[in-house]
């Protein structure tokens, strides 16, 4: 069942098109990723969903509610994580969570929520004294204190070290396990691959791909990269023309051949046929990075004058 429905949404700021005919749905209980480079329109879209911005055109429904018209009711079902630096420095963790709890009819127990997010010892700590990871966990607590059915988390691991990031990811998985639908805004591929059930890739206001992370990887050729060194110079076009090969480039003396699983036997056979000796060969599985570069690169080529 769709809990968020976005249909034909457009939003402009002057000459900048931040949302260009965006249509997508978010299903109950999933972690849905919005992925894209800076300025792709991710924040604009979640602000429209949260009722903070009014689209120029299109329709949005969240549990059937119109985010602008039904804002008070929306607030009871949708929790939005605020960006860093949002609280007075002197406000203590416990005070902040208790204050936010008072905005909701049926909220969570502040002490338990703070403990669940690993901030029990910081209950009396002022916001200004928290580490980056603790401040992020507090912002998640504030998004969850109203016991929302949907949580919107925007760039939640920005500025965290790898350990802090993993910690936050586990928290997001636990949130999902309690039945809350999560919309995750991110520009980190590793993050969306690890967490998201489905991902919409946004580029200059447009949805340029929407699928599971694994399907996005597979859609870009099924994914292998062959890195090889050869005994003599080779015309790249020879390899590019082979079946299963989707791209060939040179990287620091190595030939990097991208393609389907079929590519490896075909490429090696062709080199043998040409009596070219392979001096080194390494096989890498394609990742979401490859898919993402291919998808956003293609979107740019399709609209060279934008
Ligand atoms: N209030 C505003 N006034 C004018 N232009 C804006 C405004 N807010 C956003 N924009 C522009 O709209 C485009 C989309 O911005 P948005 O913040 O939605 O993208 P984003 O994908 O969230 O980017 P980031 O990852 O950098 O936060 C950008 O070109 C941005 O400069």
UniProtKB/TrEMBL annotation:
Q: Which UniProt keywords apply?
A: Antibiotic resistance, ATP-binding, Nucleotide-binding, Transport
Q: How does it sit in the membrane?
A: Peripheral membrane protein
Q: Name one GO molecular function term.
A: ATP binding
The cross-references to SMART domains, in alphabetical order and at most eight, read: AAA
Protein's organism: Prauserella endophytica
Task: Write down the InterPro entries for this protein, in alphabetical order.
Answer: AAA+_ATPase, ABC_transporter-like_ATP-bd, ABC_transporter-like_CS, ABC_transporter_ATP-binding, P-loop_NTPase
What the entry lists under PANTHER family is as follows:
ABC TRANSPORTER ATP-BINDING PROTEIN
Q: Where in the cell is it found?
A: Cell membrane
Which one Pfam family would you cite for this protein? ABC_tran
Q: Specify the protein name.
A: ABC transporter ATP-binding protein
Task: Specify the ABC transporter domain's residue ranges.
Answer: 4-229
């Amino acid at each position: 069942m769709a809990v968020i429905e976005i249909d034909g949404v457009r939003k402009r700021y002057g000459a900048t098109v931040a949302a260009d005919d965006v249509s997508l749905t978010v299903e109950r209980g999933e972690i849905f990723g919005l992925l894209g480079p800076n300025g792709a329109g991710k924040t604009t879209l979640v602000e429209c969903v949260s009722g903070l911005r009014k689209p120029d055109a299109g329709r949005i429904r969240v549990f059937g509610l119109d985010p602008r018209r039904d804002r008070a009711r929306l607030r009871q079902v949708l929790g939005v994580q605020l960006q860093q630096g949002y609280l007075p420095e002197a406000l203590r963790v416990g005070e902040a969570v208790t204050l936010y709890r008072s905005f909701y009819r049926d909220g969570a127990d502040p002490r338990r929520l703070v403990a669940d997010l690993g901030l029990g010892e910081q209950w009396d700590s002022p916001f200004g004294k928290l580490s980056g990871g603790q401040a992020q966990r507090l912002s998640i607590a504030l998004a969850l204190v109203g016991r929302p059915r949907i949580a919107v988390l925007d760039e939640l691991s920005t500025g965290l070290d790898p350990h802090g990031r993993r910690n936050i990811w586990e928290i997001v998985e636990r949130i999902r396990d309690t039945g809350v639908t999560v919309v995750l805004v991110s520009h980190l591929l590793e993050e969306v691959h690890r967490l998201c059930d489905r991902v919409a890739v946004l580029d200059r206001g447009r949805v340029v791909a929407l699928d599971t992370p694994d399907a996005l990887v597979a859609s870009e050729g099924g994914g292998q990269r062959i890195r090889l060194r050869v005994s003599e110079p080779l015309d790249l076009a020879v390899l590019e023309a082979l079946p299963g090969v989707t791209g060939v480039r040179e990287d620091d003396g190595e030939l990097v051949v991208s393609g389907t699983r079929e590519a490896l036997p075909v490429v090696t056979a062709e080199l043998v046929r040409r009596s070219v000796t392979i001096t080194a060969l390494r096989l890498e599985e394609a990742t979401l990075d490859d898919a993402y570069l291919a998808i956003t690169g293609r979107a740019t080529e399709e609209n060279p004058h934008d």
